[in-house]
Structure formats: structure tokens, C-alpha cells
Amino acid sequence: MSSHPDVIVVGAGLIGCAVAHALSRQGAEVLVLDASAPGSGASQASAGMLCPHIEGAHDPVLQGLGADSLARYDAFIHRVCSDAGMDVPYVRNGTLQLADTDDRAEVLRRLAAVLHGQGVPCQFVEGVAAVRDLEPLATPQRAGLLIEPHGAVRIRDLIEALRQATLHNGARFLHSEAVEHVSRLEGGLVVETHANTFHASHVVVTSGAWAMNLRVDGHPVIPTHPVRGQLLRLQMRSGSLRRVLWGPDIYLVPWADEVLVGATVEHVGFDSRATVAGVMQLCTAAQALVPELAEASFTEVRVGLRPGSPDGLPLIGPSRRLPGLVYATGHFRNGALLAPLTADLVAAIVRDASADVPSALAASRFDL
Q1: What are the residues facing 246 on neighbouring strands?
Q2: Bridge-partner residues for 174, per DSSP?
Q3: pTM exceeds 0.85, yes or no
Q4: How far apart are CA 218 and CA 121, in angstroms?
Q5: What region does 296 belong to: left with phi over 0, alpha with psi -120 to 50, or beta?
Q6: Of the candidates 61, 71, 23, 70, the residue with the CA atom closest to the CA atom of residue 359
Q7: pLDDT tens across 96-124, in order?
């Protein structure tokens, strides 16, 4: 690795690691800079859900982008695992969304009809017995919707695999490098941290909520903001859930040795504390949905500051003010889902600055 890499990636969360891997695979010399260790920010509090038809049910644009990214996931995981020489826990066994009232059941019925019309495999069931057949541990429910293409990925393993794969492709990771300023120098860009100065032809901003604190010459403030999310790790005494389970204001993601329970949505600035109120909210909702969780062991609460954006969609694309600068931030709750799509888009932009980016995602919509 030369002292002037081709690309500097600012931020080593899931998005930054996915982007770095994609760029290193196409032969670029990549340097990843972060103030902390890879995956130690919002990513470590991600449940890893891959659920575009739930997360995007309120927004057809987000739903379409999520479905596009989900369609890339099998190949994405295969590439990462092959390059890293390690496995990543990853399932595509569906999600089960539950309804405990007639009104909520009707919402699921309508969603099922829409999904059928789009060709998305799903199954709407009514009645306690029918729902119990799909998930015996859930409390009695009026209805359920099984969306078959959905799944989950274990984020901590995915980030480590991405890091190893990227290192194998010749990239470097430097932590304890808090990036403060990006500016233009003839022939490239300059990245200044609290302690060092680096040069590269391209810089990709993947620093999540902290992007708003990055100074970029000639640019307005990057319009990301932190949204706190608290996530619980529990261990059940016996039995396990069959798949990702969704209830009112709660989701449960089972793995062999634990259940992830999430997540709060709190607009509290850069306050990354775990709180009694947040933990109680999640515990109460989880126990109401799956009574056996009352006897589960409490392993950990994790807190992440997810990067929100003004319109709820990521900022992905080249800067129109500073040639060579590319944005990939503002993913809010959908970093895990949108990682393959984001990595592919950024890799295409670095190859060709005129590469197409969905207009709904373009960073230029915020005059960047």
C-alpha cells in the first residue's frame, strides 16, 4: 500500500467495510479510517434484519431499493465468505409479522394482497391455531403474515468477514483516526484527522451520524443526525423462535444461542447511554409477544446512534461540488439491508463518476 491510496473510506461501520471490500475487489488501493475499531458504532447494535417489505411498507421507494439490495444478498455473502475464508450466519427463512387486533389483521391482509400482486411469496393466515402452527411460542394472535424472502444476517460476523476479506485484498484499516476535514488539492483530495494528513484520488464518506460533524471545503453541513437505538441480547432457557418475529413496536431475531430484541427509536442527539426506560420498553414488549422470554437470561444491552436523514433515505452518490468525493451515509435502520446495493453503487461511481444512482438516493438532492 502506497502512502497515497486510490480511495480513502471515512468510517469503518458495516457500510464502510462493505464499500471498502467492493473497491478492493476491483483492484483499488483502499485505506479505511475511523476513530474507533471496525463495527463499534451503530453497526454493533444492529439486529441484521433483511426485511424490505416491512421496513419499506410505508415508502414504495425504500421498499423497492430494499428489495433490490436483498436480491443481491446471496451473491454478496458468497463473495465475502470466499474472500475472507470464513462463514457468516445468514438465513432467508422468512419473517412472521403478527396482529393481535382486527384492525392490525386487516393491515396485514392488505399488505399480503399488495405483495401477491408484486410477485413476492407470502402467506397470510388467520386464527390462533393457524398462527401457532407458524410460531408456537407466540401469544395468541388474530393473524400473521409470513414473508418468505426475508431473513437476517449476523452483523458482528459479517463485519469481521468484510474486514478480513478486505485485508486479504490488500487494503489497510487505521483506527484512532478521527477524520475532521476534507479538502481539494491539485490532483486529488486531502483528508485530515486529529493527528495525520492523507491524500487520495477518491474519498468515500461512510461515517454515519457523525458525517454531520465532518468539515468539507465548499460544502454545507452534511444533513445526517443521530437516532439512538437500544437493542437487547437475551438467551432463552429452552426452545427457540423459528424465524424473525414482528409485533407492535418490537422485533425478535433468533440465532442458535440468543435472541436479539429491538429496537428503540430515540431522538436524543449524541447521547449513547442505555436507559432503564428503553430496556423496560423492550423487555415488556418482548415478554408480551413471547411469554417464555420472561425466563430468559439478560446478556447485554447495546446502543447505537443510527444515521437519520431529512427524508428517511440514504445519501449515496458523488459530490457535485468536490470531484472525487462520494457519499454513502444516512441509512438509518436499513444499513444491513442496503449494504450490498450501497457497495455496488459506490464501486460503480469510483470507476465512473457519471454512473447512474437512483435519484431518490443522490447526495446532490441536499446540494452536496
Answers
A1: 97, 251
A2: 33
A3: yes
A4: 48
A5: beta
A6: 61
A7: 999 999 999 999 999 999 999 999 999 99
What is the grid cell recorded at 54?
416491512
The residues, any chain, with a CB within 8 Å of residue 106's CB and separated by 6 or more, are: none
Is 249 strand, coil or helix? coil
b/e map of 26-42 (b: 16 or more CB within 10 Å)?
eebbbbbbbbeebbebb
- Is 18 within 8 Å of 84 (Cβ atoms)? no
The three three-digit cell numbers of residue 71, written as one number: 436480491
Rounded Cα distance, 294 and 71, in Å: 36
CB-count exposure of residue 68 (10 Å: 0-12, 13-18, 19+): middle
Give residue-wise pLDDT tens across range 273-302.
Answer: 999 999 999 999 999 999 999 999 999 999
Alpha helices in the chain (DSSP H): 14-25, 52-55, 60-71, 73-84, 102-118, 128-134, 155-168, 276-289, 335-351
How far is the C-alpha of 94 from the C-alpha of 104, rounded, in Å?
20
CA dihedral (335, 336, 337, 342) in degrees, to 10, reads: 60
DSSP 3: S
Query: How far apart are alpha carbons 319 and 222 in whole angstroms?
Result: 11
Let me know: does 251 contact 151? Beta carbons within 8 Å.
no
**Contact at 8 Å (CB) between 50 and 336?**
yes
**Residue 1 — very low, low, confident or very high, per pLDDT cuts 50/70/90?**
very low
| 3-state percent helix, strand, coil for the chain, nearest multiple of 5 | 35, 30, 35
Q: 35-57 pLDDT, tens per residue?
A: 999 999 999 999 999 999 999 98
β-bridge partners, 193: 179
